[in-house]
Design goal:
The complex is a heterotetramer, with two copies of chain A (about 160 residues) and two copies of chain B (about 160 residues).
Chain A (H helix, E strand, L loop, with lengths): L1 H22 L4 E6 L10 E6 L13 H18 L4 E5 L7 H14 L4 E5 L3 H4 L4 E6 L7 E5 L7
Chain B lengths: L1 E8 L8 E4 L4 E5 L6 H11 L29 E9 L11 E9 L4 E5 L2 E3 L1 H8 L11 E2 L3 H7 L2 H11 L1
Antiparallel strand pairs in B: 1-2, 1-4, 4-5, 5-6, 6-7
Classes of the chains: A alpha+beta (about 160), B alpha+beta (about 160).
Bound molecules: adenosine-5'-triphosphate (2 copies) and magnesium ion (2 copies).
């Protein structure tokens, strides 16, 4: 029981570290048991250090850095326990354009192993779509679906 | 196992039936604020067996039934169907194609079907239990959850790893 | 005491209602004392109905609709108790392009009465700037300031 | 009363001194994730007298002092100065131009000045108490507060109205 948890933690840790490094183009991150003596009960802590910066309290990170770190954590879990399909609802809202690009690139890599349904209003994420659907409300209060051709998107 | 199509009718703002074909790779859903994008995510959560009205942003279970607009009257039932390809036998059912249907009526009754055969909600929930794709899996990241992930308590974070173990 | 609170509430209510109507291009919103008998203690409830839709539980509103409603509330408070300067840090992240435009338009109106320092990564908000500053990190971990000319912005 | 300029040095990522001139109307601050935009908002909150480390995203008060980067060593002091035009006498001080300065040292000592004259933190906090521009006013909406406003409890919302009354 503790064996299985420990193995999973080691796996997630490894992937979290490398995915963080990829998304941040550097830096390092890790997961740490708050009480390493107590594998069965101890809570888990996230340590993250963006490139060029000194290690800091997670709370001091910026909104976008926090979001990108959370995204790295989610992808690490997906790597260890893959899902046939995955739904992301506006996970990229706090990211700047450069980070949206990195997120989209990682998304494309993972999409080779599973389906992703991504809700977003970011250009970079839309550009990664294999299929694009638009939800519209021509009649107020009622949703309709249109499939959008990628070259129809506004700049 | 992969998704083939999602059919939604009477569910939240999708009063008229829509069909979303889902292919391999990445499907991106775009649209203005309040147009119904997150309602699609809610529909998927719901057909997989979500029982918490709060997880669907409501306060009661019938909040998922289209409650009318200025120009359209409310309806009495919400229905969502998920069509899946199970040729790799990921789901513990002896079918190549699987259709999961959930209905809910304003009277409070719910109906559940697997390939048109009536079943219990439990049967649908248990179908996905081991796949990671169930609503307990980390497969569905709702709007606003990203902010919560980093501010989660260390114990909650541990639970996430336990579920993946 | 209760008199002053009641007067302020009536004022905020009036402005919240009209600002909501302006930001949503229709619809209606109001503030309501949960327990109208108890003016001194009762909590305050927000009721909001976007145009064309039926009145609904606030929680059922979309992410963007909630954000826009909160923005209307803030501006209503500012109308009743104006501030010499005001700082908004990424209040527009959940808004779609059309709503960012309406937000920017309202911002410009209020800026005639006071200074606004707005942190944003949205095009529509940047376009409303009288002055634009860019914060950069040429040396990792160290912030520098540049003033940006509005015509230098990427499309 | 209006802001004229903000000077920041040694505060979080602004180890080298920067001066932000603030004009009438709208000043928009842009930049990549983690570049220091919210740190500017924190600097303003701080110089107005914020005493909660948590409100500044830290866990201790010295978290506001530049703690070094890969290529730069930490420094021993953070300093922020706010230059204001008070010709309309909004602030209860008999000066046309007012400069508020706050310093904090790693040793734990803080220094406060109004127009270069040493004062207590309390004097700075009370200066803004009635203007709505103080850190208690609704004038500073931090990153993430918009989401909290609508999910606030009815009692908290009432408090906001009471403060405006
Ligand atoms: N049962 C219902 N009947 C009618 N309308 C409903 C019902 N439940 C929710 N809605 C409406 O659905 C809308 C929210 O839709 P949704 O959350 O999908 O928007 P969205 O496209 O995700 O927008 P955003 O980009 O702002 O997140 C709200 O306006 C809400 O009033
Ligand atoms: N005392 C300090 N010394 C050095 N760096 C610090 C200190 N305090 C905070 N930081 C760094 O400042 C950065 C956060 O800056 P800030 O929150 O201003 O970013 P931002 O521009 O608002 O980004 P975003 O667009 O993502 O919100 C973090 O990388 C954090 O590590
Ligand atoms: Mg949404
Ligand atoms: Mg920020």
């Amino acid at each position: 029981m503790a064996r299985k948890f420990k193995d999973t933690l080691v796996e997630v840790k490894k992937h979290f570290s490398s995915i963080f490094h990829e998304l941040f183009n550097g830096g390092e991150a890790s997961l740490k048991l708050i009480n390493s003596e107590d594998i069965l009960e101890s809570g888990l802590e996230i340590i993250a250090r963006p490139p060029g910066k000194n290690p800091q309290n997670l709370a001091l990170l910026s909104g976008g850095e926090k979001a990108l770190t959370a995204i790295a954590f989610i992808f690490a879990l997906l790597k260890v326990k893959p899902s046939a399909f995955c739904i992301f609802d506006e996970v990229d809202t706090a990211l700047d354009e450069a980070n949206v690009e990195r997120f989209a690139r990682l998304l494309r890599k993972f999409a080779e192993q599973g389906q992703f349904i991504v809700i977003s209003h970011r250009q970079g994420t839309m550009a990664a779509a294999d299929i694009l659907y638009g939800v519209t409300m021509v009649d107020q209060g009622i949703s309709q679906l249109v499939s959008v051709r990628l070259d129809q998107l506004p700049a | 196992m992969h998704l083939k199509e999602i059919e939604i009718q009477g569910f939240k703002t999708f009063v008229d039936r829509v069909k979303l074909k889902i292919g391999p790779g990445i499907t991106v859903i775009v649209g203005p604020n309040g147009s119904g994008k997150s309602n699609v995510a809610d529909a998927i959560l719901w057909v997989l067996g979500e029982q918490s009205a709060k997880a669907l942003r409501g306060s009661r279970m019938d909040d998922v039934i289209f409650s009318g607009s200025e120009k359209r009257r409310p309806v009495g039932m919400a229905e969502v169907t998920l069509h899946l390809d199970n040729s790799d036998n990921t789901l513990p059912l002896d079918f190549q194609d699987i259709a999961i249907t959930r209905r809910f009526f304003r009277t409070g009754e719910g109906e559940y079907f697997i390939n048109k055969i009536p079943c219990r909600l439990k049967d649908i929930q248990e179908l996905f239990l081991d796949t990671g794709s169930g609503r307990n899996g980390l497969a569905i990241i709702s709007q606003g959850r990203i902010e919560q992930i980093l501010s989660a308590r260390p114990e909650e974070r541990r639970t996430v790893i336990e579920e993946a173990a």
